[in-house]
Design goal:
Its main location: membrane. This is Ribonuclease. Pfam families: Virul_fac_BrkB (PF03631). InterPro entries: Virul_fac_BrkB. This protein has eleven helices and no strands. With 276 residues, the chain is mostly helical. The chain has one domain. The longest helix has 40 residues, at 127-166. It is globular.
Length: 276
């Protein structure tokens, strides 16, 4: 029986539930977590080497991470940042570019495979085309991350000038600006990923529902997980010095789940629109 025949009489939520079970997204999320772990450190190297060219400090990066990442993992990443800063040299930028783009593109490539799984399609594009797409999406993601770092800084400067002139307290607006920019940027990134990633032709407007879910879901799940780890869990007592790494892997796993569910939502909605 075809996919249409199996699902045409079922509600969207029931269809989504069955698709999530059928596609075994927990295993796919574990793959994504592995690739994310391989990507994060080259990405940090590349970001650090760019700092002298932008009005961004290491603390700005740490502050952005602290909004989502549990404190144990932030300490691990901060330690890696400090090591990179101490050993920075002239050839690090070129290494960072190559290592980041290649390693992070493995993560994007895994997401593309997961999205094809959601749409029940096989990858028909050649290795060169699919890999080039992963590389382009990776570069775009890096650019968006840099922009997301810069916008709050310049926005804070502009708000500071305006509110000083008006005599208002800008602290609330700073927080609102940061979260608005964060949600907008991640929604844009996920929209591009869900639109271009799977090997199916989609109008871009069909990509945003899952992107919006993933953007908000990722922020909420990250905050909830961070609160749980910081308030109740003690991974260091169980895993010792590996506690921060284990927490980081769990956060990547949760992030992978959210990304895949967003793709599944778009696949189910597409099926619902095209069904006869």
């Amino acid at each position: 029986m075809t996919d249409v025949g199996r699902y045409k009489k079922k509600t969207i939520l029931k269809h989504l539930y069955e698709k999530i079970k059928e596609d075994e997204i927990t295993g796919l999320a574990a793959q994504l977590a592995y690739y994310f772990l391989l990507s994060i450190f080259p990405l940090l190297i590349f970001t650090i080497t760019l700092l002298p060219y932008f009005p961004v400090t290491t603390q700005d990066i740490i502050s952005m991470l602290e909004a989502y990442v549990p404190s144990e993992s932030v300490k691990l990443l901060e330690s890696s940042l400090s090591t990179v800063m101490e050993n920075r040299n002239g050839g690090l930028l070129s290494f960072g570019i190559l290592a980041t783009i290649w390693s992070a593109s493995n993560g994007i490539n895994a997401i593309i495979r997961a999205l094809n799984h959601a749409y029940d399609v096989e990858e028909s594009r050649s290795f060169i085309v699919s890999r080039a797409l992963a590389l382009v999406l990776t570069v775009a993601m890096i650019i968006v991350v840099v922009i997301s770092l810069l916008l709050p800084i310049f926005g804070k400067m502009i708000l500071g000038i305006v509110f000083d002139f008006l005599g208002f307290e800008p602290s609330f607006m700073y927080t609102l600006l940061r979260w608005t920019i964060s949600i907008a940027v991640t929604t844009f990134v996920f929209t591009m990923l869900y639109w271009l990633g799977p090997d199916v032709k989609l109008p871009i407007k069909w990509a945003w529902p899952g992107a919006l879910f993933s953007s908000i879901g990722w922020a909420l799940s990250s905050l909830a997980f961070s609160f749980y780890v910081n308030s109740f869990a003690n991974f260091s007592s169980t895993y010792g010095s590996l506690g921060g790494l284990i927490v980081l892997m769990l956060w990547f796993y949760i992030s992978g789940l959210v990304i895949i569910v967003g793709g599944e939502i778009n696949a189910v909605l597409r099926h619902n629109r095209t069904i006869k």
